[in-house]
Design a protein that fits this description.
Largest sheet: 6 strands, mixed
Number of strands: 16
Distance between the termini: 39 Å
Helix content: 40-55%
Mean pLDDT: 95
Strand content: 15-25%
Strand order of the largest sheet: 4-5-15-10-11-14
Shape: globular
Radius of gyration: 21 Å
Low-confidence stretches: none
Number of helices: 21
Bound molecules: pyridoxal-5'-phosphate
Length: 490
């Protein structure tokens, strides 16, 4: 199968080129030339498989350059003992028609592991297939979850190094400890003075520095990104929508062909877009409910067709959804309107921070997506109420989706069985979860939450305080390039 850019569908690329390049030369995102179909018989076959087999089978449909054995090797390496649940992405049924799809049983306790445990395998194999001789250095600016998940994914992967910059004081205590204690021989981490934008701008500047790229190339290196616009990150996420559906079937709650609703806590639109692909492949999905926090740019877009990032930025207790430019939306725009219109929307977004899609596209979007948002207070109340009622504990991101689904059901009367996509372990955001449960200013939130929930702290987070800090450095933005250069010495 060929791939092309959302901004020009005349020039084609192979899957390995798309994954190796990450972003298209014209600045667009790679999309497949057609969407493979999964019929009900195949869906039944998937239901009989475990997560790894489901993953190899579905990814193969998009990666015909890769053999079945190759892909099976990748899934065995990506989804193994590094997950603390043999189901990898287990479905927790709350009641008759509501389930949580728990995507946080991996090594960093957030859903980004589902893709970032797979990406290094796809990327290194793609580099071999494209004949790339240089080694790759993954460069990441992170506001928390992505950096840690990328470090875990790429640590000690042959032919790669990874360096992560995070804003000094701009990530949670747990997120910082997770990164500065990172194990692995090929990893580096450094704080940058300033906020996330400063770190991100610094990294973008390094990526755009042609002279530096040439110097690194002479030393046998090139820089690449692990952020969610890479097709190799989106593809592994399609799998868990099928997997949740199969779990519903296997639990005897629906039959193959019945439809589900998926409610997704959304930031960059990567997760929910993977669901859109699953539906386009034939997965019976009635509707996606797009859940946002106070940064509700997507709620407005889905309800009106106007995307406008010119609005105040809110710092919330669901920080991984604090985003005003949802990059992966470009892929949906392409699917609905084609390359010329997409190009023009992205130009408008660049120029004015705003664009507006036509009535036909709005109608198509609203036929598939509903949207809602909720603030921090309601998020906290949702956590406390569900815990009091059922003893099930949600993190702050999942709770946004839970609340928005409840609103959707009340307003629409739609009681279709639903899956709430659960994106982080409550322990990862322990302080805010505890505060929601009415306990403020606890000395050690992890221990306190474990006691409160009568559950052990997940292994990747326990003992964090005792681990040696390997990367205490803080730098000025001006020194980031030199730090990367030094990191690639030797
Ligand atoms: C990244 C992230 C999200 C948002 O996912 P997108 O793919 O960016 O929409 C939601 N919750 C958590 C915990 C995350 O880490």
């Amino acid at each position: 199968m060929k791939y092309f850019s959302t901004r020009n569908d005349k020039q084609t690329f192979t899957a390995s080129q798309a994954i190796a390049m990450g972003i298209a030369p014209d600045g667009g995102l790679f999309v497949p030339e057609h969407i493979p179909q999964v019929d009900h018989e195949t869906l039944r076959a998937l239901c009989a498989m475990d997560y790894r087999a489901r993953s190899a089978k579905l990814m193969k449909l998009y990666l015909d350059e890769f053999s079945q054995e190759e892909l099976e090797g990748f899934v065995r390496a990506a989804y193994a003992g590094n997950f603390d649940d043999p189901a990898i992405a287990p479905t927790h049924f709350l009641n008759e028609n509501t389930a949580f799809l728990e995507l946080w049983h991996g090594p960093t306790c957030a859903f980004k592991d589902m893709a970032l445990q797979m990406l290094p395998h796809l990327l290194t194999a793609s580099l071999k297939k494209t004949g790339e001789k240089r080694k790759v250095c993954i460069l990441v600016a992170t506001s928390g979850d992505t950096g840690k998940a990328a470090l875990e994914g790429f640590r000690d992967v042959d032919g790669t190094r990874i360096f992560v910059f995070y804003p000094d004081g701009g990530v949670s205590r747990i997120q910082r400890l997770q990164m500065v204690t990172q194990a692995g021989e090929n990893v580096g981490v450094c704080a940058v003075k300033g906020n996330f934008d400063d770190a991100q701008t610094g990294v973008k500047r390094i990526f755009g520095d042609a002279a530096f790229a040439e110097e690194l190339s002479g030393r046998g290196w090139f820089l690449s990104s692990a952020n969610s616009i890479n097709w190799g990150r989106l593809l592994p996420q399609i799998v868990y929508y099928f997997s949740a559906y199969c779990d519903y079937v296997n639990a005897g709650r629906i039959q193959v062909g019945d439809k589900l609703v998926f409610c997704v806590p959304t930031g960059n639109f990567g997760n929910i877009l993977a669901g859109w692909f699953a539906r386009a492949m034939g997965l019976p999905v009635a509707r996606f409910v797009c859940a946002s926090n106070a940064n509700n740019v997507l709620t407005d877009f889905i309800n009106t067709g106007v995307y406008d990032k010119n609005r105040p930025f809110h710092t919330t207790i669901s920080p991984s959804m604090d985003i005003l430019v949802s990059s992966n939306l470009e892929r949906l725009l392409y699917q609905l309107t084609g390359d010329a219109e997409t190009r023009s929307y992205m130009e408008q977004l660049n120029r004015e921070g705003r664009y507006s899609v036509g009535p036909a596209a709005v109608q198509q979007i609203q036929a598939t997506f509903s949207a809602g948002f909720c603030g921090d207070a309601e998020t906290g109340e949702a956590i406390a109420a569900l815990f009091a009622e059922t003893h099930y504990l949600m993190d702050t991101h999942t709770a946004v989706a839970f609340k928005v689904l409840a609103d959707y059901r009340r307003q629409s009367g739609d009681q279709t069985p639903a899956v709430i996509v659960s994106t982080a372990s409550p322990f990862k955001f322990a302080a805010d979860v505890l505060a929601a449960l009415g306990e403020k200013g606890t000395e050690n939130p992890l221990t306190a939450l474990a006691a409160k929930a009568s559950r052990p702290i997940p292994a990747p987070l326990s003992g964090l305080e005792e681990r040696p800090v390997r990367f205490p450095e803080v730098t000025e933005r001006e020194s980031m390039r030199r730090i990367v250069s030094d990191f690639l010495e030797g």
